[in-house]
Predict the structure.
Amino acid sequence: MAKLLMLVVLILAGLAVSTANPVQADSQGSPPPFGRANGQAPLGPSAFPIDPGFGHGPGARPPREPGQRIVPAPIESVEVIASGSTPTGHALKIVAGLPSGCASPHDSGFRRVGDVINAYVTNTVPANPNTVCSLIYGTYEVTIDLGTDFVPGHEYTARVNDQTITFVAHGGIVPPDQSDERVTVPAPIESAEIVQVPSTSPEYVVKVVAGLPSGCAKPDNSTVTLQENKIRIDVTNTMPAGDPVCTMIYGTYELSINIGSDLTKGDTYTVNVNDTIVTFTA
């Protein structure tokens, strides 16, 4: 009986010491929680404006795993793309970052207020700021469907975490008075090369690689003007009139432009193709 009483006394004494001396935080200062400065509260789901079900259908956002906290993902790029079969369908194509080996993709969504779209992408990271993580930066893609409620040709603003872009809505029907109207513009020149064509009287050809800066651009024409030892070549494209919405696909095409044989042997000539300069000796 005496031994049992002694054991109870020792247990009670140990509890008293533990209560009086709790474990202290590291006085040397540990790295601040992700995305926050020293002395500020950890960044959790309440630190940025995301409501349960924000940009989703029925139900709340995915829960975080035990021992994890939710943080905004760093955004590498934001692009507006077509979505679905409806002409006015839009979506945000986002490349988000994973700043360490401990970070994992969590959620994404949006809220629209008039012409402004507020979107978010979140990660989860360990709740303990002292967790040791590999310093490997990764990325992943997220696509957020914005629906079809857009006016073609109208400008909108999209904000994704700390990134903001503006875009002009696509889709719809082009008015008849603009559908066939095109304007002439200089073509960007990728390269120009002088080639001598074998013949009884030497002829020269300028091989040109010209650019089509968008899906709306089309090759048009080329003209040659010879003035003494200077040869000017104008290469043009056509574009739709007005302010069209075009796919940002860059294409090229090749031209072989004959500058004739009426050149003086031994003379040096300068060829200017839309401000791209090459020289050669006949």
About this structure: The CA atoms of residues 102 and 133 lie 6 Å apart. The helical segments are 2-20, 176-179. The first strand starts at residue 68 and ends at 72.
